[in-house]
Structure to design on (161 residues):
């Protein structure tokens, strides 16, 4: 069973309750949970699945729709080595690289750790652009600016000062 959902609430709804995945025949099943959620969410879900006789690995992925279609995502896996080995043939079809990074929750930790600098970059990039909002510059002109002026055909000014 593979799940990749939007958040912890969606996971709780999909797995819990009378019609949830945990109400089905769980013993011996391996759940591959690929959502980007907090490590505690994955650990708690793993405990619920283990109590029902199943196993869980967390494997959030890096990549966008294009790499997903091409089977070129990057997978960060947390779980028992035997469970990871059991899932690896399937994960290898979806991911160009699969890294077993530790116990359940470690995949989530690694994905969030990698996302953080990206989020900080894009936030600071947006803030920097807002500082120049009242200038007659396009974002491209701002991005390509340097101490050496160069032409920017997309700029309304024609050259980057």
């Amino acid at each position: 069973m593979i799940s990749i959902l939007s958040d912890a609430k969606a996971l709780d709804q999909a797995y819990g309750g009378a019609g949830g995945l945990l109400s089905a025949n769980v013993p011996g099943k391996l759940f591959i949970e690929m959502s980007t959620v907090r490590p505690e969410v994955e650990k708690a879900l793993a405990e619920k699945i283990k109590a029902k006789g199943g196993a869980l690995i967390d494997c959030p992925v890096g990549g966008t729709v294009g790499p997903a279609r091409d089977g070129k995502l990057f997978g960060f896996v947390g779980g028992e080595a035997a469970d990871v080995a059991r899932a690896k043939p399937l994960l290898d079809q979806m991911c160009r690289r699969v890294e077993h990074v530790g116990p359940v929750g470690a995949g989530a930790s690694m994905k969030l750790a990698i996302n953080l600098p990206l989020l900080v970059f894009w936030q600071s990039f947006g803030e920097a652009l807002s500082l120049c909002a009242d200038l007659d510059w396009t974002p491209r002109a701002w991005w390509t600016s340097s101490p050496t002026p160069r032409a920017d055909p997309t700029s309304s000014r024609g050259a980057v000062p």
Q: What stands out?
A: The chain has six helices and eight strands.
